[in-house]
Request: fold
Amino acid sequence: MKKVAELHVSITDVVNMMRISGQFEGPLNEAVTRKLTADSARKYGLTGSTDELQNAVDQFRLSKGLQKKQVAQNWFKARHLSLDDLESHLETDLLIDKFKTALEKSAVKEKYSAYPQVQVAIREVIYREWLAEQFRHAKQQPALNLTNPR
Reply:
């Protein structure tokens, strides 16, 4: 909850505003997509090492100018986040990246171009095809009413 003077704004207030203004579905789909992919990566046996996670944290801190302890603490405090929150987010990023690579390796190679500049796009297409299939499956379940991302 955010307090400005004597004004209180709750998470519910923010979520309702986003729903009404049509801004809720995109972040919701992104959160579902991230969870679905990370869970699938784990089921596939993929993990991130401690070194990979530390490297991701270091790169994040460098990209945000958070090398100094006090600057980093202020950044976390301003966003109501902890280091554990950041590590969880970055671990999910690692798992998603590894899962995309695994999907790419398991795809029928003849189906895709071998040009190096196209490989990144191919990887994304393979991932999006897999993700669309997951959403199609989820739509068949009454508890989940999701739309395709992006």
Observations:
- The first strand starts at residue 2 and ends at 4.
